[in-house]
Design goal:
The protein is α/β, with parallel strands linked by helices and about 350 residues long. It is about 35% helix and about 20% strand. The longest helix has 25 residues. It starts with a strand and ends with a helix. It binds zinc ion. The site of zinc ion has 6 residues, from loops.
Length: about 350
């Protein structure tokens, strides 16, 4: 989904922008794939819905673009002041189901933006800039496949474990987006039809258990069942106020009860990956997102669960389950890669 005129032949620098639940993160990427400079602003929050919130977010995107335009690192990488026609192309990643025209059809974790046509709103605010819009998880996978932990593999499953779960599939060396652009929405595979409600409107989705949000949920469940007495005492005595971060901190400090909750999240991660392997048979699985920042305690549990649950077990070739190389920048870097090449492939 591209807009604006001009040729991309002069794209020494490309911008990538990742619209997240808490921040809008932008990077300027040099011609060798290096991050020249980064810019970020908080994602606007408030009571606005639909196009009103879309406009606020679009203004935040324009703000990040202006910061990148003004950065001396960008000017230095584009000698000779190329003017607007040679201005860096912009890739923009948004969470949720993005259709092939850049409209946001459905976004459980950004519900206030349902139905927003990013393409129209951003064209209004940046009428003369070239940009494209894609799903954020697909862009993160593109970055990891080209420049990061999935480099050199033709069959990669990328799973981003944040507030929810984002997924993306590299098959035969190419990102696959499906018939309508929605492939890889793996966080909403139902793993327990009687499980807890999900923002998508159903129950027991995988991301209710195996994400940063899932860690918080399992932690509160354990706290209310009396299985986290030390953590509850540390957080003021109210089991309902226990957060995922509290349990991670306690687990890292050696609290065995907390450690069991974190390992439980890891089990759920491995469980889902084992099911996905039945469909995709990946050579490598790359995990990104905020759950990694919360420590890797759960990662060994995920690897063990995967090995135990995957069909064929030890008779299969082992699959490395590795952390993403680019951390929180993967989506923005992938957006810049897509902007430079004019699409996802
Ligand atoms: Zn769901």
């Amino acid at each position: 989904v591209t807009a604006g005129g001009g040729s991309s032949a002069t794209a020494d620098v490309a911008y990538g922008i990742d619209i997240g639940g808490t921040k809008v993160l932008g990077v300027a990427l040099g011609s060798a794939g290096q991050v020249l400079v980064e810019a970020r602003v908080s994602t606007p929050t408030g009571p606005a819905h639909g196009d009103a919130v879309g406009r606020e977010v679009a203004r935040a995107v324009v703000d990040v673009v202006a910061q990148l335009d003004a950065a001396p690192e960008v000017a230095a990488a584009q000698p000779g002041s190329p003017g607007l026609a040679g201005a860096p192309p912009i890739g923009i990643g948004v969470p949720g189901m993005v259709d092939r025209e850049g409209g946001l059809r459905f976004s459980p974790n950004l519900p206030q933006a349902h139905g927003v046509d990013w393409h129209v709103l951003l064209s209004e605010q940046m009428p003369r800039r070239r940009f494209l819009i894609e799903n954020d998880a697909n862009l993160a996978a593109l970055a990891e496949h080209r420049l990061g932990a999935g480099r050199g593999f033709d069959h990669v499953l990328m799973v981003t474990l944040g507030t929810g779960i984002g997924g993306a599939l590299i098959v035969d060396g190419r990102l696959r987006v499906g018939g309508h652009g929605y492939a890889g929405e793996i966080g909403h595979m139902v793993v327990d039809p009687a499980g807890p409600p999900c923002p998508c409107g159903r129950r027991g989705c995988w991301e209710r258990y195996a994400s940063g949000g899932g860690l918080g949920l399992l932690a509160r469940e354990a706290a209310m069942a009396g299985r986290l007495p030390a953590v509850v005492a540390l957080t003021g005595g109210d089991p309902e106020s226990v957060r995922g971060e509290d349990v991670t901190a306690a687990a890292l400090a050696g609290d065995g009860d907390a450690r069991r909750v974190v390992e439980q999240v890891g089990w759920w991660v491995g469980f889902g990956l084992a099911n996905l392997a039945c469909v995709l048979d990946p050579q490598r699985i790359v995990l990104g997102g905020g759950l990694l920042a919360a420590g890797e305690l759960w990662l060994d549990a995920a690897r063990a669960a995967y090995a135990e649950l995957v069909e064929g077990g030890p008779t299969r070739e082992p699959v490395d389950i590795v952390p993403a190389a680019m951390g929180e920048r993967a989506g923005a870097v992938g957006a810049a890669v897509a902007a430079r090449q004019g699409g996802l492939w």
